[in-house]
């Protein structure tokens, strides 16, 4: 992996030099981990003129889930409470005769920015923007392998839950059990707070579990994800509890399933992000559900659960091969409940079999 991290830093250095910056300060944790192999709390990465340094407030954590520093990278731990690694990095950049330092203004706090300026007033600070985030969009096969394992863990946890007795248990209890099962199967932890929604809550995007108990005839929608070696995936499914689904439940489920399939089928290299969203959204619009639809159909995943690209009506850009995204349309009917179906896939060319589905739990409407 050392060569992988070195290549990533080289690509970033080339972009910095092309924009006139001799050095760059990376402070966003996911970006630090992408370039350095690990991101201890508060750590920053300095890409200098001569060498690169990971500056930490304390010794890096040696747990596998936290990653480990690239062997080719110099690690500098500040003694005791010696101050802010970002300020120390800027001081180091100036000592290395850099005259310009690119910083991640979208992540660096105003207080941190002011502290850097006070220590190195002669160093010109420029905005690095989202350069690292853009480098992270296309994943290598090692990254995709981590996502694939995370998806397998999430599938396992969900599959085991479906085999248990659900009636009478609360949303909160089920969510906690799912998160425990994720860890039991080898996840670092949940990729995001697990959502379990029943009855009138079902199908609501971002629902926070409550003490509502599962009842016969409910829709039950679940959205969970596993983090594995820092990489995060997502899966969402909807089921009916206890009895055979009602006609309206079957109709709504089939509609959302058709929308999700339309989105998945459009995941090809070169497809406009907005066109993928449109393909799924039109299915729901044509059935009279234009109002109240989620603002997006999907998003990228990786070291963060919400990454570029975004699959939304106003999204810019096109998809590349080896980009993992979610496709997650849903419909929520106030007072009745709803359906959400969510998969993580990797964009692949047709010659390679088309989009690779990572989350494989059945999408059949099951009565549990």
Automatic annotation (TrEMBL):
The keyword Nuclease does not apply. GO terms for molecular function: aminopeptidase activity. It comes from the Bacteria. Pfam families: Creatinase_N (PF01321), Peptidase_M24 (PF00557). Residues 8-138 form the Creatinase N-terminal domain. The keyword Protease applies. Residues 189-211 are annotated as: Disordered. Keywords: Aminopeptidase, Hydrolase, Protease. Residues 146-348 form the Peptidase M24 domain. This is Aminopeptidase P family protein. It comes from Streptomyces spinosisporus.
């Amino acid at each position: 992996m050392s060569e992988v991290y070195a290549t990533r830093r080289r690509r970033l250095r080339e972009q910095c030099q092309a924009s006139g910056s001799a050095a760059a300060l990376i402070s966003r944790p996911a970006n630090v981990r992408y370039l350095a192999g690990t991101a201890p709390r508060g750590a920053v990465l300095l890409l200098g003129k001569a060498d690169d340094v990971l500056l930490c407030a304390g010794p890096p954590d040696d747990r596998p889930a936290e990653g480990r520093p690239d062997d080719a990278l110099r690690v500098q731990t500040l003694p005791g409470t010696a101050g802010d690694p970002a300020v120390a990095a800027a001081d180091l950049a100036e000592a290395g005769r850099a005259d310009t330092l690119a910083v991640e203004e979208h992540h660096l706090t105003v207080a941190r920015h002011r502290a850097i300026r006070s220590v190195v007033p002669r160093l010109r600070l420029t905005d690095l923007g989202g350069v690292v985030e853009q480098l992270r969009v296309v994943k290598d096969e090692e990254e995709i392998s981590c996502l694939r394992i995370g998806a397998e863990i999430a599938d396992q946890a969900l599959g085991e839950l479906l085999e248990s007795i659900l009636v009478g248990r609360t949303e909160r209890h089920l969510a906690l059990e799912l998160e425990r099962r994720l860890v039991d199967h080898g996840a670092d932890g949940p990729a995001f707070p697990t959502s379990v929604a029943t009855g009138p809550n079902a199908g609501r995007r971002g629902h926070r579990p409550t003490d509502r108990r599962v009842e016969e005839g409910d829709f039950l929608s679940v959205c969970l994800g596993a983090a594995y070696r820092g990489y995060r995936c997502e899966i969402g499914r909807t089921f009916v509890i206890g009895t055979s689904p009602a006609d309206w439940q079957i109709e709504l489920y089939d509609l959302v399933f058709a929308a999700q399939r339309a989105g998945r089928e459009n995941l090809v290299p070169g497809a406009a992000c907005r066109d993928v969203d449109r393909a799924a959204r039109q299915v729901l619009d044509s059935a009279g559900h234009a109002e109240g639809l989620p603002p997006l159909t999907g998003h990228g995943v990786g070291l963060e659960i919400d990454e570029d690209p975004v699959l939304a009506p106003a999204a810019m850009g096109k998809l590349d091969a080896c980009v993992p995204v979610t496709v997650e349309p849903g419909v929520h009917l106030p007072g009745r409940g709803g359906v959400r179906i969510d998969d993580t896939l990797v964009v692949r060319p047709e010659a390679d079999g088309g989009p690779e589905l990572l989350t494989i739990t059945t999408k059949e409407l099951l009565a549990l």
